[in-house]
Design goal:
Layout lengths: L10 E7 L17 E7 L8 E5 L2 H8 L19 E7 L9 E10 L2 E9 L7
Antiparallel strand pairs: 1-2, 1-4, 3-4, 5-6
Length: 127
Amino acid sequence: MTCRFTLLTLCVLVLSLIAGCAINRSATADGAPLARQVTESDHCGLTAPGLVYVSSAGDLDKLAQLPSGNLALSMLRAIDFKEEHLVLVGLGQKTTGGYGLTLTSSEIVDDVLELALKVRRPAADAW
């Protein structure tokens, strides 16, 4: 897994809940978190760092067409996109294993959902 040219893109699917006019801007009106980590994968097919916003089942179908086809979408098909949306976050292609992302918190600031992520890196001598 620590091979030099291995594609190691960690993807975190973050399910962000629609907050509406909630008074508590770190939770929805029902008390649910604004965002939660749904799953993660070391190989999702994203070769560059960034994120993909998914708001419909059709968007999931487009993700299934990624060349690597490494993203497991079966559990995501149960999501009700009228209530929830997904954000796919990728670190991009890495030369070694040991990279990762974890959702640590979320809040709405000035009507923008901000996600805080913890980045894991391999030891400096991991080649």
